[in-house]
Sequence to fold (661 residues):
Amino acid sequence: MDMKDSKLFSPLKVGSLTLKNRVGMAPMSMDYEAEDGTVPKKLADIFVRRAEGGTGYVVIDAVTIDRNYQYIGNTTCLDSDSLVPQFKEFADRVSAAGSTLIPQIIHPGPESICGFRKIPPLGPSVNTNANCHVSRSISIEEIHTVIRQFGAAARRAEEAGCGGISLHCAHAYMLPGAFLSPLRNKRMDEYGGCLDNRARFIIEVIEEVRRNVSPDFPVFLRISGDERAEGGNSLEDMLYLAPKFEEAGVNLLEVSGGTQYEGLEYIIPSQSKRIGMNIYEAAEIKKVVGIPVYAVGKINDIRYAADIVERGIVDGVSIGRPLLADPDLCNKAYENRFDDITPCGSCGGSCITRSAQSPQCRCHINPLVGREYDFPAVPAQKPKKTLIIGAGPGGMYAAVTAAERGHQVTVWEADDTIGGQLNMAVVSPGKQEMTKWLVHLNHRAKKAGVEFVFGKDATAEDVKGFAPDAVIVATGARPLVPPIKGTKEYPVLTAHDFLRGRFVIPKGRVCVLGGGAVACETAETILANARPTAFTRGYEASIGDVEVTLVEMLPQLLTGVCEPNRAPMLRKLKKGGVQINVNTKILEVTDHDVKVQRSDGTEEWLKGFDYILFGLGSRNYDPLSGSLKEFVPEVHVIGDAVRARQASYAMWEGFEAAYGL
Fold:
């Protein structure tokens, strides 16, 4: 299909607003918000850049109606008329870039962090949030006040020049969503009990908004097509309510799914979740309303988006993380440049998970998130003969960046293929999508004229003979095998080698040492490879039953892994019968046994394993940079060669090193 002729890129009328196409940017928490409730330039830049890239509309997440009840950290506000001029500057920038701004107007309700200030969050009932703060039941009088605050915030959004507003009553989350869901709403008055009563709050909010804005000013509403939790709202409930939302004054429905605490992986579907998580529910809801229905939830291929719109399944799509990966997604798709689209790998990385090293929203594959205009795409002042040692994610990103800026780039790779440790990381079930990163970088590298030499184990002498102007060392990391008693006396097997396919585990009892991503993915892969119903007559190597044990020193498995990935994997490991030992220190190993120490100091032997695998992480590997600095004018070390970390750091550092050549 030529995208220029696709329905996805045709206009859509929503109230008084005409959208230029049917792609919207979904609301996402960014953590670039300001303490005073305004929109800082860095935050605004993220949305303006996506507007420039052709997105039909952009939604800024969580604009609160009452700063006394903050959402997560600093919170953008529209709770005062004094904020309108500054917000108008933001809206005008988005409009000038060719799109329209839709603020998501919210009251965080039970999810407010006000509990840290000893102020109980407001909820329909008593509930405990993720911070272990208990909400108090909001009074009828307070309900009416909050409803008026929603109306006033909507008025300010229109005065600021926004194209419309979005309301959130999905995921049993925030105040409207909590009222709507039987998982949170335990009231025994007119706002509780039956479905109509639970919907009363959001319908009154919609009606109040309509009274405060122009007759056709667009109101979007995000709902869960199915909360996918026992005791939660179902698709049948939403089929009943959707026409009522339309009658109250909603102009567009955005269908999500899941619940914030019981099923976050359905709200932010990452690894192992299928594309188009909420398409069925959205299609069914579309049948009972006369307003546009958009779907959101892992719509990470623009051709798939075009197909479901073309077939009339939905009227449009709301896309989040893929627009972080490539702000020009829509423009590239419209021009049919699909290979040029930087793909989202559904990794659940820094776009979702915050850390001390990465406290704000970033993207593994796009180092410019949060720095939209800091690195102009201009040629380098002086082309250099550049050597990249290593073709993992960091080396590939460095090679692409350098070549696209005009440098003469050669990559030496000791292996026979690109990818580095990513070749290991994508083996476990559900992680295949991350191969898209390297497929894309390989496309760009070839397009930019990068020369590859495989099977080349670089030495200082080779580099000296090559005589580069600059070298970027991206030699990655090696498996970490600590000096545990027994590792010198007995053969050591590593999870890394298993995931690389250097040996197989056909059956038997397996102990994996470690509880991080590598160890748990190894356990998951061992379980996936076990096929008790498969057999080969007359051979000892028949694949059969396996029993897996994990030993982790920390109090829990998968520390630092985002919850949408962590929770499903833990369920899978437990369902597979994996014996999980946390708070357990490894003291000694033999060829079949592991001696451990429990948290109370007691020691015991775990015995009778057919395989013991070390999955205790990696250690940086940089055998070259020290000597190269003696004769190469410019030497940079990036990624795991500096310190073993996530692939994102390798790609970000590869980009920055290459850009700075």
About this structure: DSSP finds 20 helices and 27 strands in the chain. The two ends are 41 Å apart (CA to CA).
